[in-house]
Batch of 2 targets.
Target 1
Amino acid sequence: MKRKKIYVCAPYSGTLEEMLHNRKLTIDRCYALYAQGYHPIAPQLFYPSFLDEDDPEQRQFGLDAGLEWLAMCDEIFVYGSRTTAGMLREIDYALDHGIPSRYVPE
């Protein structure tokens, strides 16, 4: 069965405590999507594990790589009521490339 690929657009950055909280929320959202029959794509769980978020070049690579993943997705799900600069970039990309968006309240 081919699962629909869903890009998980959610806050990640902030203080260490906020980042850990956001990471946990994203993992939970990915599991929920998986359980609903989707294929979740959440680059914010992958790239920060080996890239330095404080290094502008590495951060930019991670952001650009995320957009490459988004280009392969069937939809983008935007989570939460707070939208970060990185999320806005992903939302704009989806709009510009005709990728359907779904807004998911917290």
Target 2
Amino acid sequence: MEQEELLSNEKVEKVLSPHPLSFMRYQSLCIFLIIWGVLIGWLANFSEYKELFSGYWSVILAWSLVLLIAGIMASLTTIRWRIFFLYLGIVAGGIGLMYWQGGWLTDAKIFIPFYSVAMSIVGFLLVEWYRLSHKYIISNQRIIFKGGIITKEERTLRYDKISDVNSKQGVLGQIFGFGTIIPISLSGFGLGSDTSFAAGGVQLGEKKAKFMGIFGGGREVQTPRARSYYELHGVYPYKEVKKLVEKMVQGSVITQYQQEQVEFQKEQVDIQKQMRDLLKMQSESDKEQEPESKEKK
């Protein structure tokens, strides 16, 4: 953080970035792509089932379907359809390259494994670039969240505006000592909601009616959730950072005793002002009465 960005009497306590394993949900997509690409190459070239992949279209079809189904399942699980469209782009790009080169279609058994590995390496590099774009600055006055590859984003949160601190650790986080801390502001920033749905329909015929539908029920639940740019995502060391944030938040909270002391001091100041005004008015009144008393004499 540049010195000119600091506020008056502000001191930087920690500058953090996400742990290299904190974006494993994205890295796992690359790992799956490598595994499936190598596996389809082995099945089509060396396994006892290679006769099932005698035609190049059977290899392309099997590779594409498994990737797209995996993309749909991952998207439904994470409620992010970008994963499906990512896999769809990889499939379309591979088929497009094979058509463009012409002869690569007949060599699909060899091309697809190498293409899958190459796309995975590119994916790993993009995930790492995305991770390094995150920067979290914890000072004695506020938390600054910075991030963005193309569009730079920044969020500043003062400690006195934090109403709650949510923290979580996954399995890898517990092993390697990193975790995510979500400061929830008084306005509710840092919270998301999970909802359910219901759908149905009525089919009317000449003699009878049919009711068809899909039902889902539940309550709307507020859950701590924020983009990785707006939370302390995958920070290390987790326990130390969590303790530091909670200490800063606690230090900015005015206790009931302190609040009573502040109110008492305000009352004392108001009383002193009133007494000063009364004394001033009395003094002015005495000055006005002095000439009158002299004239009478």
